[in-house]
Amino acid sequence: xxxxxxxxxxxxxxxxxxxxxxxxxxxxxxxxxxxxxxxxxxxxxxxxxxxxxxxxxxxxxxxxxxxxxxxxxxxxxxxxxxxxxxxxxxxxxxxxxxxxxxxxxxxxxxxxxxxxxxxxxxxxxxxxxxxxxxxxxxxxxxxxxxxxxxxxxxxxxxxxxxxxxxxxxxxxxxxxxxxxxxxxxxxxxxxxxxxxxxxxxxxxxxxxxxxxxxxxxxxxxxxxxxxxxxxxxxxxxxxxxxxxxxxxxxxxxxxxxxxxxxxxxxxxxxxxxxxxxxxxxxxxxxxxxxxxxxxxxxxxxxxxxxxxxxxxxxxxxxxxxxxxxxxxxxx
Length: 331
Hints:
The chain is mainly beta and 331 residues long. The protein has one helix and 32 strands. It has one helix at residues 320-329, and strands spanning 2-10, 14-16, 26-28, 36-38, 48-55, 60-68, 73-76, 79-81, 86-89, 93-98, 109-114, 119-123, 129-132, 139-147, 153-161, 167-171, 174-176, 181-182, 186-190, 195-201, 207-209, 214-215, 219-227, 232-239, 246-250, 253-255, 259-261, 265-269, 273-277, 280-282, 292-300, 305-312. It starts with a strand and ends with a helix. The relative contact order is 0.09. The model has no long low-confidence stretch (mean pLDDT 93).
């Protein structure tokens, strides 16, 4: 008869048949008793090997074993990876946990453990597919282990990375918020071990940028970070060292700063800026129609400021000449 031993051995293993009976005598079809056989790829390229043992009394029994030529592997997007691979993808993937096709019995298992410790175990003889996913804008790590009945174990680390690349504007060691307007030099910092950066000024061509390099000169700057799997992030900042300009109007006509007038005045400007008059918030084009000295301080988004002054004087000059005449009549 034929005995299915369920024995799986690896390519490169050494096997040896041993026989025990009262006579100690037998004959073998393929593998002699007591002899070591190295199962090399060239010498034993097939999968299943039989050895028929015939006892001294003529009883024949066939013993078989299976050679596993291929170690467990992981297949993602049609690409097969070997044990020890550390993989990173920018989107969800469907993975297949693969054992040698010669394995048709025994324990062939796959274990998938995520970064939170949640574990999924698969019997690979009944199903070997698993989905590796994570939420938008985040990342998730998976540890995958595949075992076959020949004693092989392959492990893999897979990261699904949908998180945007991280970086920040800095100035003199302090963090500057993205989208800021400043009136001083900047730098941009990021982890250059897994990310590359390109910078553009005023919408011009992008050029490679090194983390921490100083950025000088007025202009609008855009930095784009790209990580190893193609996730991108965009950052913007403006350097503006030019003081904002405004204008004083008196009686509907533009006048110079420092004007003295008896007409109503108002202050105006272009662009995004804020203004205070004598320390209080001032609304653009609001008319001032009272006597006094007025100091307008105009400040732009980058912190540059300009100062303008106007005086409304409606007090008539005193008549000192009449007083002198009255005094002379007293003499």
